Amino acid sequence: MSTTPDLLPAEAPAPRLCHLIKIPTFDGYGFNLHAEKSRPGQFIGKVDSGSPAELAGMLEGDRIVEVNGVNIASESHKQVVERIRAVPNETRLLVVDSATDAWYTEHKLVPRSTQDNVHYIRTPTTGDDDVVDGELQPPANGHHTAPETVAVEQQSASLPSAKVT
After folding, report:
1. For a surface tag, which of 7, 27, 90, 154 has the fewest beta carbons within 10 Å of its beta carbon?
2. How far is it, in rounded angstroms, from Cα 153 to Cα 73?
3. Within 10-165, where are the H helices?
4. pTM of the predicted model, to two decimals?
5. Correct CATH for 5-160 of 3.10.180.10, 2.30.42.10, 3.10.20.880, 3.30.450.40
C-alpha cells in the first residue's frame, strides 16, 4: 500500500477530530489521558458524562494521533499533556477507535487531520447555529481538501494516567 497522500483508499475508516472547548458548567475537559506498557500511544481513559470531551465525541479507549495538528507518536505522556494545555480553553484531538487504529496500522498508514474523510465534532457552545443532526459542522473555510498519510511510526509508552484539565 502506497503512502502517497492522494492514494488514501475509499474504504479508509474516518478518524475523528474532536474539538474540545471548555464550558462554564464543567471543570476541565472531562477525560483521563493514559499510556499502557503493553501498547504504544496515548489513550483516552474515562470520559465524564456531560463533559466537553463527551460532547466533542471522545470515547474511552480512543488513541490520540494528533494534538492541535501535531502528530504525538514520539512524544512522552508529559509532552502530550503540555500540548493539550498549550491553547487556553480549547484543544483539537485527532483520535481513532481500536478498529480504525487497526485498519491504519494494517495498511501502514497514519491518520492525519488534513484527510478528506476526517469526522469533525466540536463541543457545542452557547450561540452555535451551525448544528446539523446534533453535530456542529466545521466552518465553511475549514473543509480539508487533501488527504494525507505517511508510514506508521513505532513508539513506546509506559506512563500512568492523568486527568487533563
Report:
1. 154
2. 7
3. 52-55, 77-86, 98-106
4. 0.75
5. 2.30.42.10
